[in-house]
Design a protein that fits this description.
This protein has one domain. It is built from three helices and no strands. The longest helix is centred in the N-terminal third of the chain and has 44 residues. The N and C termini lie far apart (about 65 Å). With about 110 residues, the chain is mainly alpha-helical.
């Protein structure tokens, strides 16, 4: 345990405080991103139900993104494209799968 009379003690205390503040900001940003996704999901379901043309345009794009998500999730080591992450594809993958379950994609409507 560090002695409170040392600069190391106070430096560590400052790092811990900064880390706690950063963790709180990350949690708030995660909540915000989840809210944006929920709003997009709500909007997308209604838009694509009413506009099969738009659904037909989005379906191949989001399907490809879902497949790329799976490929990146299964990839071992470093991705070929350093700027491409599974997280960049995750929302489209989730929407693609959800709309698949709702049978909204063209050819899947009941």
């Amino acid at each position: 345990m560090l002695d409170p009379d040392t600069p190391e003690f106070w430096a560590l205390a400052e790092v811990k405080a900064n880390l706690a503040a950063l963790n709180e900001k990350v949690e708030r940003l995660d909540d915000w991103a989840n809210g944006v996704y929920a709003a997009l999901q709500d909007l997308t379901v209604y838009l694509l139900r009413d506009d099969p043309t738009l659904a037909a345009q989005l379906m191949p794009l989001w399907k490809a993104s879902a497949e790329q998500f799976a490929a990146l999730e299964n990839e071992q080591g470093q991705a070929e494209d350093l700027n491409e992450t599974a997280e960049l594809h995750e929302a489209r993958k989730m929407l693609f799968r959800l709309l698949e379950l709702y049978r909204i994609w063209p050819g899947e409507r009941t």
